[in-house]
Structures are given as structure tokens and as C-alpha cells.
Amino acid sequence: MDVFLDTAKFLVDQSKRHQSVLVAFSGGKESMAVLDLCARSFRTVHVMHAYFVPGLEVAERQIEYAGRRWGVSVAQYQHPNFFDYLRSGVYCYESAQASVARIKRILFGDVLQMARRDCGADVVAIGRKRSDNRMTLSKKRNMMREGDYIYPLYNWRQYDVLAYLQMRKIPKPESDGRRSSSIDLTTPCLLWLHDHHPGDFKRIARYFPDVVAVPKRREWFGVGKVKEKADATA
Predict the structure, then answer these.
(1) What does the domain layout of the chain look like in residue ranges?
(2) Distance, CA of 41 to CA of 59 (rounded, Å)
(3) Taking Cα atoms as reference points, which of 8, 66, 15 lies closest to residue 43?
(4) Mean pLDDT, to the nearest integer, of 21-25?
(5) What is the pLDDT of residues 125-148, one digit of tens each?
(6) Domain 2-173: which CATH number of 3.40.50.620, 3.30.300.180, 3.20.20.70, 3.40.440.10
(7) Is there a contact between 85 and 208 (Cβ–Cβ < 8 Å)?
(8) Is the pLDDT score of 215 beyond 60?
């Protein structure tokens, strides 16, 4: 219980210092837990979602749930990964690659700061944990804030997140089996969309037409099948 109590105390302290918070909402487990925690602590909660391509049903469903559950409206911004993939020529034609060649590269942090300025939030809450492989923060114990960002789940483990969702009766979102909940052009994500959300797979193919090669690689050469079996037994 210490990790939950520490987080509750931290958020109470932050809510006394700041009236508003912006929650980065991917629709995944951690972002749903952070949104619920912040909605119970802060006076004003803003929410932003960074979409990979517009109109993905798997993302829109989570956004609609957030609106119903927490009474928030979700502002949407383009995720910079979209342009990074185009710039690198991944699953797209040379004309698409050339179209973004001169566009200045921005980072996800830039998008977060843009969203924070747009809504006037004091701080940004992110669902990253110290145990995440992608965590780039210092490993200092209990380092739950850095600059304009707060990390309520910093000391949580995966089972803490799952336990919290169950306790709060928040449905566990769909997943392609990876730790990350983002939509991107990795093989596990594309195969999951192809098999379970074909409409969204087609939407991505409008911008990255060569993604159709991914399920064909699995069909012809078995690429992806080993990973799928591993996920099924996890």
C-alpha cells in the first residue's frame, strides 16, 4: 500500500501548489490510471492525446470512454513519430518522404509543451514508471517531479497499475502484447491491428501503403508467429 499512499500524498501536495494539470492520455493502462488519480486530486484536469494517424477507432474508443468516465474533453495533437517514420521512408513512397524532408523535427516533449500552453495547465502528468525501459529520468528514489512534469506512477510496478485499475473498476484496455500502448509501425502493433482492427490497419495503410507487406511476411515466411506464441503464453 505504500506506493499508493505515497502517490496520493504527492498529488495532494501538487494540487495545493497548482490548480490545473494536463494529462497525457494514450488510452493505455498507465495513462488511464494517471487520469483517474489526477481527476480525484486536481481542481481542473485537461487531457491531450497524441494520435499517430487521425481517426483510429481503437484510440477513439478510449477517448470516448475517458469523456464518459471523467467528464473531460480530450484535445488531440499529431504525434511526431508520424513524421519521423515518413522522414525515414518507412513503409512509404519516396514522394511522401520528400514531402517532410524540410519540416523541422520536433519531439514529443515539444507537443506536450504546446498542449500545456494551449490549455493553460500548470503541470503535465505522464504515466511513465521508473521500471519502464524507455524511462530516461534519473534513477533517484521517489523522483516524481522534474520541471513542468509530474510522474505519479514513478515508483509503481506493472502489477500495481493492474491492481489499481481493478480496484477502481476501470476496464483494462486492449493491447498488442507490448509494454508500450502507442500505435506505431512496429511489427507486433501492425499485426495486432491487421488481425483485430482491420479498419485501423487500412487507415494506416493510406499513409504507409507498404505496411501490407507485414502480414504477408507472416503468411509467407512466418515472421511474427514466434512473437505471437510468446505473447499467448505470457
Answers:
(1) 2-173
(2) 25
(3) 15
(4) 98
(5) 999 998 885 545 455 555 798 999
(6) 3.40.50.620
(7) yes
(8) yes
